[in-house]
Every structure is written in C-alpha cells, then in structure tokens.
C-alpha cells in the first residue's frame, strides 16, 4: 500500500507542477487542484497507513491516528474555498483582460 | 486565567461578522464599527506590550492542555507586533474612511478579517494554527487587493493568489513532514522533539525547515519569490497597500519564530544554522534588488513597493547574522520601515489627488495644489526613509550597523545597506524635485481641495515615526530584551509546557 500511495502522490504532484507552469489560467487552476490533492493525501498518510483501524480508541485493538484526519479535513475545506475563489478570479480576469493568459495578454496574438 | 489574550482575534472577527450581516447599514455606521474595533485593538496592543514585559502569557483554547490543544502564546515579540499592526491598521482605516472604502462593497468587513488573521498569526503557538491564520489573512488580502476592481488589479491579483496557493501547498507539505517525524505540531513540543531527534531524521527535518522558509519567504518577499510584490502592491488602493506593509513583516515574524524557537533549541548543533547559510546571501541580494527597483520605478507606488522589498531584505540579512544584539536592532528597524512604507503608499495617493494629471507617475510634471504642505510631508518622510538624521530611519540604521560591526561578515551588510541608502536618496530627490520644483503654479479652473483629514492621518503616522527617534532609548531597551528572549528558546518551551518539560523530553524522545 505504501508503494501505491507514494506512486500516486508522485504522479499527482508532477502533473500538478506541470500544469501550474503552463501559461493559461485554466491549466493553472487544474494544476493547483491536483497539487492540493497530492498534499492532502500526503498529510493524511503522515498518520501512518493502517487498514481496518478506526480513528477512535477502544473499539478495536489497534486505532488510527485521528489528528492527521482532522488536519486534512481543515486543509480540504480551505483548499476548496481557495479553488472556488481562484476560479471566479480567473473568469473575471479572462473577461476583463480579454485573454486567459496568466499575464493578461497573449504574446502570439498581439503581433501584427 | 485571563481571557484578554484571545480578544485580538475575537474582536475583529465579531466586528467583521456584524459588518457582513448588516452590509446594508449606511457606510457611516460601518465606518464607526470598523474604527471602534481597530481602536480596541490598539488598546489591547498597549496592554499586550505591558503584559509581555512581565513574563510569557499562555492561553489554552477550550482549556485543552498543551501539547494536545492549541495554545496562544504572548511574548515580547508577538506583543510588539500586535501593537504595530493595530496602530498601522488604525491609520489605514481612518484614511480609507475618507472615501476609498466606497469603491466596492464589504471593505470594512474584509479589513477586519484581515486583522483577525494577522493578530492570530502573531499569537498562535501551534504550527497548523499558524497555517490556518495565514489562510485567513491571505483570503482577506486577496479580496482587499481586488477591492474596487479594474484591469490592473485583476492581473496583479491573479499572480498574487496563485503564488500564495502554491505557498499554502508547500506549507502543508512541511507540516506533514514535521508531524510524520515528531507526532506533534505545538511549537514548544516540536522544539523538544526536534532537539532530541535521531540523526537519521536530520535530513528530513532540514528539508521541512527549508520548505517552511520558502513559504515564509513568499510572504516576506525574499529574492526568487518576490516578483509578485511590486505589481500587487502598486495596483491596490492606497490604504490597502499601506496595510499590506505589515504583511511582509508577518512572513519575517514567522521566520524568526520558527527558526529560533522550533529549530533553535538544540544548542550544540541547531538546525537553523543551515537555513541561515541560505538566508544570508539571498537576503543581501534582495536588499540590493530593492535599491535598484527604487531607482528604476516609474511611479511613487512602485517605488514604495520596492522600499518594502528593500526593508524586507535588510531585515532578513540582519536576522541571518544570527546574533541577539543585531536582531534587537533589526526589530527596531522593522517598526520604522513598516510605518514609513505605509506612509509612502498613502502619500502617493495624497499627492496624486492634488496633481492636475498623471496621478503618481514620476515622468509627469503636472501642476499641483497645496504644494507646501505636500512637499513638507514628502521631505520629512523621504529623509526618514533614506536613513538621514534626525529621524527614526537614521537611528535604526545606525544602531543596526553599529551592532553588526563585530560580525565577521559585516562589510557585506555595511556596503550594500549604505549603497542602497544612496540609491534611495537619489531616487527620492529626483522624484521630489520633479514634482514640487519643476511644475508651474496650479491655474486650473477646477478647485482641488486638499482633504485635511487625510493630511492629518498621514502627518500623525509620520509623527509616530519621528517619535520613535525621540523616545529611542525605551524602545531600544524593549527590543534588546525581546531579542534576548527569542535567543532563549528553553524559556519559551517551559512557559508553554511547564517547568519539567525540558528535562522529561530529553530523556524520552
């Protein structure tokens, strides 16, 4: 399971970084979302990977660490709000600047 | 246990909540509530500074004992930052209440949320909680930056939001590493466990420390991570930009707190030594770049943005010298530079309104009204910013350079700081002579009256910076004690976790 999580994290992060480095707002937003997925998964796995162990002490012989779950919940809520905000902001920028380039202008189109 | 400590977070939160719920209330009532809340914060800041001089104060949220619950810690540094933020915010909100809060809805609610995030970041003693307060202040700052709308703000806002979202992701990665290795996020508890960590974990811990520095470096504008700042600060409205002058200092505060407390407890081989190795050259280049930016700026607002970068670079460079006496002087410089950067953002707006055309562009020499008043304000703040006697800029820089002289690498700091000062004098005198000497007297038919309330706000803020020079001795004593306290992380740990925590923690890692 560790290997699977590690590979998934690697793929998510590399896709996220690749997309963030693109010059269009839509890809940047997608990249940020992928990166925050990777980060959330990483944070979650920092409580060590256990299966069949609830996060409540006493129900079963072994229990999972509840704190990373609480942390990741907070992180998810925050990244959700931020994603919503950045989507609206990039729509606003695309309308006002008449381009979805992150700098607000398309270097290829402006040439005569 | 006194509940006063939580009020710097709760008061702006309640005020912002009230303002959001009553967003149809007249702008006058909104202003009254916002100003009242900020005045209360100033009073709390004064209380905090006097309380912190006695001893540490801790506040257990929900009465959960540390290290299990979130703890708020008030020490000299956080008290001083609380007071500075509240004072600055008071002048910003007064200035904004003269009209720029009408450019869009919810200005005061956003402003109070911003203060809530800033105060929380100064008070918290838990790293994850620091992340949460960072997000609160960032989210409010995104909206404040865009307040009023316009193409320039949308473009600058997009860059600002994206780089800070990336910073948040890195912050969480660093927190994940730290939690995975130590099983705690309380700063005092982390300090104990990091000092007792096994040698196998050192590399990962170092990685986490450097990741955190990248995150705080984005906020504090260190060299490769500062290119969002000039555009964002010069695009936002004057009171917002003036408030943002404290934001880079929040990054610097977090840097000091984390490096000295969390990574500095192990006195034999502290982890922060490796970070200082990176911080020193980067901060020096930031300082130089700020000076070049000031010289090359096309408008006064951009110039002020580069002043923020310059002061940030000087702060981090002096911090990277890793000595208590130098840190004391740089904390004094922090007070001075925050006030003065805010003054310049407000001055740019004040002068821009009186000019017939060109707003704050340096290339335009337009006739302006009330020349004498504006020129005097500009002269006093320029002299102070450039570090010429007799104002606070001179006192703080002289103290800083004097304290740095025993450091083996002091010549770098001396050279770059003094040359940067020269650049600043050149840029400011060019701007001042172009604006106040060259133009013809104002003959336009339309009368532009100077707003006395705005002038009063800016003058009092300049006066505070002059008072810093006048009452320098008590402030210097406070700063020396603050730096001494920061370089004794064991006292912080004992204040948070109890007297026996250090001895216990060392034995059972």
Write the layout of secondary structure elements.
The complex is a heterodimer of chains A (112) and B (509).
Chain A: H1 2-20, H2 25-45, H3 66-97
Chain B: H1 7-21, H2 27-52, E1 57-60, E2 71-74, H3 76-96, H4 107-123, H5 127-146, H6 151-182, H7 187-195, H8 202-220, H9 229-235, H10 238-244, H11 247-262, H12 272-296, H13 300-320, H14 324-354, H15 371-386, H16 392-404, H17 410-436, H18 452-470, H19 472-486, H20 489-497, H21 501-507
Antiparallel strand pairs in B: 1-2
Helix pairs in contact in B: 1-2, 1-4, 2-3, 2-4, 3-4, 3-10, 3-14, 3-18, 4-5, 5-6, 6-8, 6-9, 7-20, 8-11, 9-13, 10-14, 11-13, 12-13, 12-17, 13-14, 13-17, 14-15, 14-16, 14-18, 14-19, 15-17, 15-18, 16-18
Globally, the shape of chain A reads: elongated
Cα-based radius of gyration of chain B, to the nearest Å: 22 Å
- Number of folding domains of chain A? 1
Instruction: Give the overall form of chain B.
Output: globular
Which band does the percent of strand residues of chain B land in?
under 5%
Q: What oligomeric assembly is this protein in?
A: heterodimer
What is the end-to-end distance of chain B?
A: 31 Å
Q: Tally of extended strands of chain A?
A: 0
Task: Report the sheet with the most strands of chain B, covering strand number, pairing sense and barrel closure.
Answer: 2 strands, antiparallel
Low-confidence stretches of chain A: none
From the helix content, strand content and strand pairing of chain A, which structural class follows? mainly alpha
């Amino acid at each position: 399971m560790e290997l699977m999580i590690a590979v998934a994290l690697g793929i998510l992060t590399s896709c996220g970084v690749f997309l963030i480095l693109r010059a269009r707002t839509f890809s940047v937003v997608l990249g940020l979302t992928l990166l925050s997925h990777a980060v959330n998964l990483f944070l979650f796995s920092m409580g060590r990977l256990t299966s069949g162990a609830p996060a409540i002490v006493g129900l079963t012989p072994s229990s999972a660490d509840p704190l990373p779950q609480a942390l990741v919940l907070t992180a998810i809520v925050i990244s959700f709000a931020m994603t919503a905000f950045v989507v609206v902001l990039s729509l606003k920028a695309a309308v006002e600047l008449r381009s979805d380039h992150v700098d607000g202008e398309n270097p290829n189109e402006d040439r005569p | 246990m006194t509940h006063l400590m939580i009020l710097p977070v709760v008061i702006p939160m309640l005020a912002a909540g009230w303002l959001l719920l009553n967003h149809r209330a007249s702008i006058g009532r909104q202003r009254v509530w916002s100003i009242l809340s900020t005045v209360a914060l100033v009073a709390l800041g004064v209380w905090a500074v006097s309380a912190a001089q006695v001893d540490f104060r801790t506040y257990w949220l929900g009465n959960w004992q540390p290290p299990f619950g979130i703890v708020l810690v008030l020490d000299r540094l956080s008290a001083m930052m609380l007071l500075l933020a509240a004072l600055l915010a008071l002048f910003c909100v007064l200035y904004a209440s003269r009209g720029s809060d009408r450019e869009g809805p919810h200005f005061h609610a956003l402003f109070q949320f911003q203060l809530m995030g800033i105060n929380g970041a100064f008070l918290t003693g838990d790293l994850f909680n620091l992340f949460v307060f960072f997000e609160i202040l960032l989210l409010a700052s995104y909206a404040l930056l865009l307040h009023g709308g316009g193409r320039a703000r949308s473009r600058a806002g997009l860059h600002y939001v994206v780089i800070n979202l990336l910073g948040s992701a890195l912050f969480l990665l660093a927190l994940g590493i730290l939690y995975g290795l130590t099983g705690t996020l309380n700063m005092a508890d982390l300090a104990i466990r990091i000092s007792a960590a096994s040698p196998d974990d050192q590399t990962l811990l170092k990685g986490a420390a450097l990741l955190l520095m990248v995150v705080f470096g984005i906020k504090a504008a260190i060299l490769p991570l500062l290119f969002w700042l000039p555009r964002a600060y010069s695009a936002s409205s004057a009171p917002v930009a003036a408030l943002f002058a404290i934001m880079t200092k929040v990054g610097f505060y977090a840097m000091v707190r984390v490096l000295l407390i969390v990574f500095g407890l192990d006195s034999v081989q502290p982890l922060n030594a490796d970070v200082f190795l990176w911080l020193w050259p980067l901060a020096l280049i930031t300082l130089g770049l700020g000076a070049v930016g000031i010289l090359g700026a096309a408008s006064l607002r951009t110039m002020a943005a580069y002043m923020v970068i310059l002061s940030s670079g000087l702060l981090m460079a002096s911090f990277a010298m890793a000595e208590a006496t130098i840190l004391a002087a740089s904390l004094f410089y922090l007070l001075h530079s925050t006030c003065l950067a805010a003054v310049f953002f407000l001055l740019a707006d004040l002068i821009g309104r009186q000019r017939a055309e060109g707003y704050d562009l340096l290339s335009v020499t337009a006739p302006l009204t009330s020349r004498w008043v504006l020129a005097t304000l500009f002269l006093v703040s320029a002299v102070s910013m450039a570090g010429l006697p007799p104002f606070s800029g001179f006192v703080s820089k002289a103290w800083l350079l004097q304290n740095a002289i025993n450091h083996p690498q002091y010549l770098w700091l001396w050279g770059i700081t003094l040359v940067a000062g020269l650049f600043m004098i050149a840029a400011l005198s060019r701007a001042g002579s172009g604006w106040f000497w060259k133009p013809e007297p104002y003959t336009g038919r339309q009368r532009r009256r100077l707003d006395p309330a705005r002038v009063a706000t800016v003058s009092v803020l300049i006066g505070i910076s002059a008072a810093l020079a006048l009452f320098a001795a008590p402030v210097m004593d406070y700063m020396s004690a603050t730096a001494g306290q920061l370089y004794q992380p064991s006292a912080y740990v004992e204040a948070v976790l109890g007297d026996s925590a250090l001895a216990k923690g060392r034995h059972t890692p």
